[in-house]
Amino acid sequence: MYMEYYDAMPGGERPAPFVPQALLDDMALHSRQAQQLEHEVTAPDLLDESDEDMPFLIEGLLHAKGLACLAGSSDTGKSAILRQLAEDICAGAGHFLHFPLHTQHRSVIYVSTEDGRDATRSILRRQTRRYGEKKLHGLRFIFHTEDLLTTLSRNLSVKPADLVIIDCFSDVYTHDLKDTHKIREFLKDYFELADERGCCILFLHHTGKRTEDLLPSKNNFLGGQGFEAKMRLGIELRRDQHRPQHRHLCLVKGNYLPDLDKTHSHVLAFCPDTLTFTVTGERVDFTQLSRASEIEESRSKYITAKDLKESGRSYSEIADMMGLGKSAVGRLFDKAKKHGWDGAEVIEEAGD
User: Fold this and answer.
1) Alpha-carbon torsion (22, 24, 28, 33), positive or negative
2) Is the Cβ–Cβ distance between 66 and 194 less than 8 Å?
3) Quick count: other Cβ atoms within 10 Å of Cβ 151?
4) How far is residue 84's CA from residue 92's CA, in Å, rounded to a whole number?
5) Following DSSP, what letter does each residue of 212-254 receive, concatenated?
6) Contact 201, 146 (CB under 8 A)
7) pLDDT one-digit tens code per residue, 302-321
8) Of 268, 304, 305, 319, which one is least surrounded by beta carbons within 10 A?
């Protein structure tokens, strides 16, 4: 009856139905809860998505998505080995060192902050002889890093890549390396970009001063826990102490790595002519890469030499008494000054 009355009114307009305030409040509550849950995924949903494990870019080593880093001290060949990885991916080599590669796009974006166009061109001419330029169309370089995140997002949306290499982290992160919060916030944006574009982003980074005297460790990376905690894989590249052309590839972080890989390095041989690395097949226990025991032995010898020196012995006499060469005694005192052992700076050779 009431509906017929309203239908007879001019314009046939009906008043809005009355809704109790309690019902409105309940509807608003459910709306807020729905917004809060919009980013959740249930376990059954995840299990229904795929039966496959997380895909790898480098089999058993580097995942196809996420963040990773390779770090080391100066002049270890960090850039060279990352360019080699980029070339192997783009050329469809099927492997990097002795690890199988699983590529989708055969494409890599290499962000170069330390080497410009001229330096990179010169290096590439030496390093790419094994492939030739025709196989490397997928290798793309970026030399301008202003608003880098936006540039990478745009370029990856137009042309996807398997890997983005940023050489190096400290040039694109301009804040204090001791500020853990800022490092994590900075890396969060890159993590989201890697996830959104379905690629891996690998940072070249540096280790702290004198860390080569310590065991290979993720704790050697500058930035400490704020940096390494965001990395799915962490690699430390360091020189061999006795063979100048050999390097140790140390896998210091990776939840899915075999125990052997976390305790033994892969020994690589470096070719200065082609700027490339090859696997020797040799594995070395991390404990043998620490110089702590060697330094302690040198310190013990220095203390003996210092006592003899203070008793009036010459370098020649000290050398004879300790079974060392005279130059070796001199090096002991030089090393003592370097490490600040027991007031070594005041010990001088008195006209010997």
Assistant:
1) positive
2) yes
3) 15
4) 12
5) GGS---GGGBTTHHHHHTT-SEEEEEEE-SS-TTEEEEEEEEE
6) no
7) 888 888 888 888 888 888 87
8) 304
Take residue 69 and report the two structure tokens written for it: 């880093």
Q: Point out which residues pair with 100 in neighbouring strands.
A: 95
Place of tokens 């370089």: 141
Preceding amide of 168 cis, omega within 30: yes
> Which residues face 276 on adjacent strands?
271
**DSSP line for 138-154:** TEEEE---TTHHHHHHH
What is the DSSP secondary structure assignment for residue 316, as one 8-state letter?
A: H
Which tokens is 121 given?
């061109």
Q: Show contacts of 264-268: CB within 8 Å, 24+ apart.
A: 265/216, 265/289, 266/97, 267/240, 268/81, 268/97
**In 37-95, which residue ranges form alpha helices assigned H by DSSP?**
43-49, 78-90
Q: What are phi and psi of 132, to 5 degrees?
A: 85, 155
Contact (Cβ atoms closer than 8 angstroms) between residue 298 and residue 334: no
Q: How far is residue 234's CA from residue 254's CA, in Å, rounded to a whole number?
A: 7
List per-block mean pLDDT (blocks of 10 residues) for the chain, which spans 352 residues.
49 61 67 61 77 82 96 95 97 95 97 94 91 89 96 97 97 91 96 97 93 88 90 95 94 85 94 95 92 70 85 86 81 81 48 38
Per-residue burial over 173-212, b = 16 or more CB atoms within 10 Å of its CB, e = otherwise: beeebeeeebbbebbeebbebbeebebbbbbbbbbbeebb
Q: Which two three-digit tokens encode residue 27?
A: 């509807």
Place of tokens 């880093």: 69
* Dist. CA 174–CA 190, nearest whole Å: 15
* Helix, strand or coil, per DSSP, at residue 342: coil
* SS3 track for 4-15: HHHHHCHHHCCC
Cα–Cα distance for residue pair 332/143, rounded to 1 Å: 45
Q: Is residue 261 classed as helix, strand or coil in its secondary structure?
A: helix
Calpha distance 225→79 (Å, rounded): 23
